[in-house]
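Human:
Class, as today's exercise, you are to examine the entry below, and be ready to discuss the fold:
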Amino acid sequence: MQPLPAGPVLVVGLGNPGPRYEGTRHNLGFRVVRELADRLGVGITRRGHQSLWGEGRWQGRKVVLALPQTYMNLSGQAVASLARFYDLEPQRVVVAHDDLDQEPGRLKIALKGGAGGHKGVASIIQHLGGDQFIRLKLGIGRPRFGENIEDYVLSGFYADQRGVFDKVASLAAECLAVILEQGPQAAMQRYHGVSLKEEVEG
């Protein structure tokens, strides 16, 4: 298995800052990285680089966890600032974000690729100057009731999905820890395509 390149790794959760957006689908990346922070014992309390962020260690590696405070569409500004500060190539940047194109409860890992319509990911591609960073895509599915996409992603989960997305956050944090320790290919073997769909819809 190919591990991550040596040196610090930046793990970013995408979302929007402020209480208005807590618990929304678009903030699932925030939630997952907070869960990872709890597991690693890292406080995400520093302010700077247009982010809330913290630094710790996992299996001997320095790990930086960040929640951009720029609003979603400008996430790349924060990511690029931290990447420059730690002198990170994109292959040592991991981004957790919601994904409309994955069914609710499904995880997908990608090592590169386009933004797929996700404006936060598009901003990161723009500001890092390429797409060679790791993504953990967190499936949220598409609206059941014909809602406008913007309203859908900025709303909370359907009542029958809330419990399972607690499990998704936990599983995704576990997946991130495996990426840090063993590399993305090892995480792919264990988590890529894993779905809690039946529980979501049950």
Summary: DSSP finds seven helices and seven strands in the chain. The radius of gyration is 15 Å. The CA atoms of residues 104 and 119 lie 19 Å apart.
